[in-house]
Amino acid sequence: MKVVWTVVAIMGLVVGGVVAASAQDVGSLGGRISFAGDPPAKKKLDVTKDKEVCGKTELYDESLVVGPDKGVKNVVVTVVGAKGGKFASQKATLDQRGCTYTPRVVVVPTTGELDILNSDGILHNIHTYSTANPAINKAQPKFKKVLTEKFGKPEIIKASCDAHAWMTGWIVATDHPFVGVTDEKGNFAIKNVPPGNYKVEIWHETLGKQVKEVSIKAKEEAKLTAELKK
Amino acid sequence: MGLMFRLRRTRLPDERRPLRMAFFASSMALVLATGWALWDEGKTRRPWIEYQRQFNRLEQQMVEQALTAAEAKFRSPEVQAKVRELEAALAKAEEAIQGPDYARLKAELDTLEGQRVDKAQQIQFIKSELDEQRYRVEHAQFRCQEQEERKAREARQDPGSPDVRKAVEACRDTTVKSAEYKALVANEKALEQRIQAHEPGLAKLEKAVEDKQAALKRFSEAAGKLRDQLAELKAPISALQRRLEGIRARAPEVQQVVIAGLAVNEFKQPILTVDRCMTCHLGIDRAGFENAPQPFRAHPRLEVFFGKHPVTRFGCTACHQGQGSALTVFDAHSSHELEEKLQADVREGLRRHIYWERPMFHGEMVQASCQVCHSAQTFVPLAPVLSEGKQLVAQLGCFGCHNLRGFEKAEKVGPSLLRVKSKADPSWMVHWIQNPKGYLPLTKMPNFNLSEDEAISVSAYLLKHSEPEAPYPTAYQPGSAERGRELVSRLGCLGCHQIKEMESLKKGTSVLPVVGAPDSVGAATAVEAAKEGGNGKDTEKREGQAGAAPAGSPEAKPPKRGGVKEEAPPVYPGAGEVYVGGPTFGPELGQLASKANPQWIYRWLKDPKRFRPKTNMPNLRLSDQEARDVATYLMTLGRRQERPALSAELQSEARIKAGEALIRKRGCFGCHEIKGFETAEKIAPDLTDFGVKRVDRLFFGEAVGVRQTWEDFVFWKLKNPQIYQTALAPQIMPNFGLTDEQIKAIRVFLKSQVDVPVPRAFERRLIDLEAAVQDGRRILQKYNCTGCHVIEGKGGDVATFYETPQVAPPPLVAGHLQEGEKVQATWLYEWLARPTSLRPWLKVRMPTFPVTIDEATTLSKYFAALAGKGFPYEFVRVEEYSPELVEAGRKLASKDYFDCFSCHVQGSKLPEGPPEGWAPDLSLARRRLRPEWIVKWLKDPQKIQPGAKMPSFYPGGPDDILGGNEEQQIIALRDYIMSLGER
Fold it and tell me: Strands across the sheet with A124-129, in order?
């Protein structure tokens, strides 16, 4: 009898906890990812095609962008195993503007959709190299302003354009909202994380993957810093 | 005893002599002899009876087991619950039949039936009355005619005259108008109405009766259905029980098939033969006996073998040999292989059969029999060892010295030596003749076990009788080895030739362009699927790729496409036949400088056919400078090793004479063209009937440890050709350095060398399509097409030297990709003979192969046949293209829409950007592509060629062209593309 009461009590606490957590007892994770070593020199891309559109502004190789104070841009930070949470939006947008992908790394909910825009008004094609999701290679001619795609399985997918060989982008399909991408200073922020101890995956397209552990407390911002090297 | 008789004889007269003992003894002997005779007849001479009993026990056990399982299943709670449910329902249904409802229905039916009969009778009566009335009405009218005609006859007037007719009319008028007649008609009408009034009542009654009958039937039907369901549940049990009864009732009986028409007698007349093997091999054609002990085991791959070769038509001994009519183990098998498997006593019996002409075949040797009917096929799918043997004989050129069936017209396998002097270095030549595998470990040239002295003599003859090469317009000058190396690594030379120092240049690119990143796990899986049964080298490659999976992919999963259910790509049967020569097809070039001189290499590269008209080496259309660079590079490989004082020896007349004698003795001309030996006969024994050569005719010499059997003789002869050599009987066959597996394959082929006439009905003849595919595959092998291209999912290994599949030679037949479906056969035919560059930006170059007209035709036909396309008939556009469609297509292809020329070349108009991003010239499409393929390609390029750079434009065509009708837009694009280059 005693046991039953204990169980009921615990269940009550858990339910109460979840309800409370969904209300305001959540924490957040913020931090900065930096580059260990000397920042690589900026490399100009050779625009060989459609110069009147692609050559308007100078294009640089963005496969590794190190900002001031060695912050690395476009690093994907993922809190693994956190439950609940809502996506701010089910839609994400990837623009092809000036023959680059803006943003270079785009986060898409697996339940949502990705609008691929063609602001350039020239022929692009979106060619993805995925394994969990179906690989696509679809043309996006001038008249096709928006192409909407779904990525139902969590995966980080490389996308490129066969018409403009220098174009590379990354689509981060995720089934939870606890994903952040660093800005040019290397900073990121992930809001509304339920308290707990988590593993955090830090991934960059050229610098590879790191795993760290972090403890998130209610109403507090946990800090995470990491250094990536070549 | 005799003494006793004699003693008695002396005392007693014959008639009084007691013969009790003698009678007793002889009758006992008779009884015993009878008993023995019966026993011998039943047991010793019929060992099969015991086998049949064993089999019956075995089958009974199996059936009993199955029965127990079936009963257990029947007794299981679920089934029992079902049974109870059904039985309850059945009881209820049967009860219902006995019940009040049923009785009431039946009673009602009876009443209704009575009412219906009454009603029907009532109507029947009224109908009779009506008939009577009708008669009267008709009679009233007819009476007039009768009356007037009678009057006329009485007055001797013509009864047919108009007067009479008029009188009849008048009489009728009067009658019809009479009240009497009117009453009759009124009565008739009234009767008709009465019938009509009754009819609905009858119909209603009939309907009611039917309904009741149906209702009653439902009762019995319900019961019947339940009974059926119950029986179905019990069916497996009763079937097994019946089978058990059948087994128990079986009496021992000789089982046999009589085969008509397969065997022929000395006069080529078909005869009947009898096979009784299944008297003991009772499980041979029965499923479920796959793992039974012999002799009861089922035939392996039962459905395939027996499906294509029904026992009633082919019997057993047609393939397995042995004595079909025999009923004892000894007499039936007479096989040496069996000796070791059986006990000592049985072995002793078998040994008696050592001289049999048709001992039973064992294991893979059975495949020798396939050749009898399947001689037209180079590859027999169910006989891999035989096929391998045929392949080996064709490659090694055994027919150069031996007569062999099926190779009567085969060409010599070695290169012509008519101009060897200008090519080969004399020092190298001596070394080579002495030990070919010392220079090229993979060469087909066997080792003749010659001394250095003999090798010099042979070289002396060959060099002396070598013709000078015709002068060539340009000459070799040293070029850039660096550029040459680059050319060799890019042009495609490595598709056929290995160069050790180049192995490090491998990029590990998968052979097929595949879905996903070229270096992803998905790529590896697709390669695996596409290269089913491919060579083992790929395993490492695949593993290498798996390791390089991008960090983003969470787990290895095969790629999927668009969520559409994948239809399996068409596969032509027998892809195992496609030979993959790979980079070991041509000689390894790592030591070339020790063999050849740069002048010769240069001329050879520029025009191989000129030096050797029968060569398979293609012309790479090198410029003078390119050829010089390549020759310079190749000369950096290896080093010339000069033998001192060789040139003087090579000039010696005695040497040349000795060389000639050696060439004649060892039969070098069997494989090589050599001047002075144009008409020389084959030097070795004729092997066309070797398959039935008796053991006592084989010469084992003094070899110890070789069993005296045909199989062992052949194995050891091929393993060590000198093994049976004695002082008096030299054995001159060279050593081919074969592996045991290769020897066994050749042995099976040799066993097939017999003269067995086959009736036409049994010959496996190839239909046109099959012949086209077989011939095509032969030519693929001749020129090693699979060294560069993936064909039927095999080959294409050279791709490993290129960064991406897009810059490697294109695959031709893989998955949904079918070259024959893509290109026009006529174009392919013309292009093969004179290839032009379709993708000029590629470094790899399709060379000009020395294909004959026949070969080009065969290849075009082969690709068309694989794709299921007609040959030589194909789609030819006769009518003009509709200008509206072409215009719509032009608009679609323009910069405002699909911008096709962003990547595609159009004649002399080149796209922007680096050539790596370009796509094939669309102005070639009209003559090159099949129009229907363009449609298929436009609809889904990724399906045809996974990983293709061509993106899919559909679905998603523009709305403002052709009313947004996508099918029409694709047709318009096709017509536009097909109209390009026309002007």
Answer: A105-109, A168-174, A155-160, A124-129, A137-140
Please identify among residues 792-821 of chain B the ones whose CB lies closer than 8 Å to any CB of chain A.
none
A143 near B CB under 8 A = yes
Kindly list the distances between the CA atom of residue B278 and the CA atoms of B257, B302, B711, in Å, as whole numbers in the listed order.
9, 15, 27
Considering only CB atoms, which chain A residues are within 8 Å of B914? 48, 165
B897 near A CB under 8 A = yes
Contact at 8 Å (CB) between A166 and A47?
Answer: yes
CB contact under 8 A, A135 and B952: no
Interface membership of A129 toward B (CB under 8 Å): yes
| Of the candidate ranges B348-362, B657-671, B813-827, the one whose mean pLDDT is the lowest | B348-362
Residue with tokens 């007039």: B144
Q: What is the pLDDT of residues B482-536, one digit of tens each?
A: 999 999 999 999 999 999 888 888 876 654 433 333 333 333 333 333 333 333 3
Same fold, B420-488+584-670 and B883-979: yes
| Contacting residues of B for A205, CB less than 8 Å apart | 551
Residues 487-546 of B with CB under 8 A from A: 515-517, 520-522
* B558 CB burial (10 A radius; 0-12, 13-18, 19+): middle
Q: How many CB atoms sit inside 10 A of residue B227's CB?
A: 15
Long-range contacts of B91-99 (CB under 8 A, 24+ apart): B93/B219, B93/B222, B93/B223, B93/B226, B94/B223, B96/B219, B96/B222, B97/B219, B97/B220, B97/B223
Q: Which domains does chain A have, with CATH numbers?
A: 27-228 (2.60.40.420)
Q: For B420-488+584-670, give the CATH class.
A: mainly alpha
Chain A contacts in chain B segment 458-487 (CB below 8 A)? none
pLDDT at residue B549 greater than cutoff 70: no
The pairing of strands B813-814 and A208-216 is unpaired
Which candidate from B517, B899, B951 shows the least CB-CB separation from A122?
A: B899
Evaluate the CA torsion angle B711, B716, B721, B726 in order and state its sign: negative
Domain boundaries, chain B: 98-248, 420-488+584-670, 883-979
Interface subset of B 899-918, CB within 8 angstroms of A: 899, 902-903, 911-914, 916-917
The yes or no reply on domain B883-979 and CATH 1.10.1670.10 is no
Alpha-carbon gap, residue B854 to B856, rounded angstroms: 6
- Contact check, Cβ <8 Å, A147/B956: yes
- ipTM value: 0.79
